[in-house]
Write a structure and sequence with these properties.
The complex is a heterodimer of chains A (451) and B (119).
Chain A: E1 5-11, H1 19-27, E2 32-35, H2 42-52, H3 63-77, E3 80-83, H4 90-103, E4 110-115, H5 123-126, E5 144-149, H6 154-161, E6 166-169, H7 174-186, H8 193-206, E7 234-238, E8 244-248, H9 258-265, E9 275-276, E10 281-283, E11 288-293, E12 296-300, E13 303-305, E14 310-330, H10 334-351, E15 356-364, E16 383-392, H11 395-411, E17 426-438, E18 445-450
Helix pairs in contact in A: 1-3, 3-4, 6-7, 7-8, 10-11
Chain B: E1 2-6, E2 11-18, E3 21-28, H1 34-40, H2 43-49, E4 58-63, E5 68-74, E6 102-106
Antiparallel strand pairs in B: 1-6, 2-3, 3-5, 4-5
Classes of the chains: A alpha+beta (451), B mainly beta (119).
Amino acid sequence: MSKTLRIGSGSAWWGDRVEPAALNAARGDLDFLCFETMAEATISAAQVRARRDPSFPGYDTYLDDRMRAVLPACMKRGTRIVSNQGWVNPDGAAQRIVELLRELGITGVKVAAVNGSIITDRVLELTDTILESGAPTATLGNSLISAEAYLGAEPIVEALDAGAQIVVTGRVADPSLFLAPMMHSFGWTADQYELLGAGNGIGHLMECGAQVTGGYFSDPGFKDVPEPWNFGFPIAEVEADGTAVITKTPGSGGAVTLATVKEQMLYEVHDPANYLTPDVVVDFTTARLEQEGPDRVRVTGLTGKPRTPTLKVSMGCTEGFIGEDMFFYAGPGALRRAQLAKKVLEERFKIVKLDAEDIRIDFLGLNAIHGAATPADAPEPYEIAVRVAARTRTREEAAKVGREVDGMAVSGIAHTGKRVPHQERFREVIGVWSTLAPRTAVPATVRYFES
Amino acid sequence: MTKTVALQHVAHARSGDKGNTSNIAVFAYDAALYPLLKDQLTAERFKTFYGGAITGPVLRYEVDNIEALNFVCHGALGGGVSRSLSLDNYGKALSSAVLGFPIEVPDDLFPLLRGHPAA
């Protein structure tokens, strides 16, 4: 009988907290620690930055922080690391990790870099249709910044099989980062789709870190969890048959309950019987959950179906600029003043001939978050921020938003509260579109380094 | 006899994003409350409740094994996370709107309600 595999989460996105990763490394008794650090537009944004700033190395900007926080404990315990912190430069990230290991006096550690996800130069040959719009991918033309395929677990498994202690990748599907250690440790193969479905289902529960241990969950009086300022990251105790217990770092806040696990099970899922990943199609509808102890939820019954012949590809495109600013009203009559301010801005945008693809003026405090879903009988708030945003083709047009909000200072209406601008109030938009590429056309390569 | 309560006493919810599509999943606080959701929270009523905030079709998946409904809402994220003019461009707060949806609850199920004075 194989031993239980302990896999912990080290991050759920680029901006995630570092301290719970350190706690998981120190106290989690982990066989593997996995880091997810990307969002949809991470690769495109990194490409843009790398072009403008030659000193940007192209990998997770928190690579040093995260690795310094976990390497000593991981190397002491023998915890292996799988991480997608390589972004557009997995080789660079691996070399930097080697440097950090040497600084700690740790030698002889094999670090692997998984490359091959970036297909910008050939994406228009490999793909046909934009999934969201149905238009041909060729219509993206010169706006295309970068394209990357979501690789699966297999190249990571190859690196682990070859003895890598640390594997750092570019774009890999989030759950696959967690599946790879299971395939490596239990000898699961790419055609064992029922086991792979269970593994990527568990990976899906883990990939958003604290979202399964009480994060993005607390609602006072309805859904309370202990110490919501001190969430631990999750740990999966996985068996060779694809069942697992989801738990968390000992001594941390938060909770692992049926409710936290259910919410995460459907997070970003469309058809729960057919959740597409590069490795397998996961079926969540056969899963059974059982609270087997405090902060311990047993997950059984997850399964899968054979993978599709294609890989998802994300394409980042330049799509102009967004100008954005806000100003404030409070007290009796806040709403009527905000409404007049909105009218003033609408007229001003005509006078300055703002050329925008879309304009939105909201009342934060009333309808800026839920928009048209705000109930018609919502009560009038005591304080309101008027928030204005416009999407434009050029930087100059986007800058008009902030300039017109400036005008509200002395040429606005009574009781207008306003900030003095200290930073640019417009930003570049990188739009993200999806398509499919044949998996055989996107081979991964693994490169090895040693400390 | 039945009384109408806000959905927040019957179920909890979480939203997730993919491009311009938001999935809003609704989870019964108790297995005995789940049939109320299935009967009353139809895809059509869900979309109507969100008003113009969802511009495309809404698909409803019944996830019986975890007593949940998953609403896949196309055209809910202002053109997509990256190009949206919405302050909450990921729609992370979008799932809270449905907590105000009115649900008729039979008196005998009132003890199962969460955070309700009659529970």
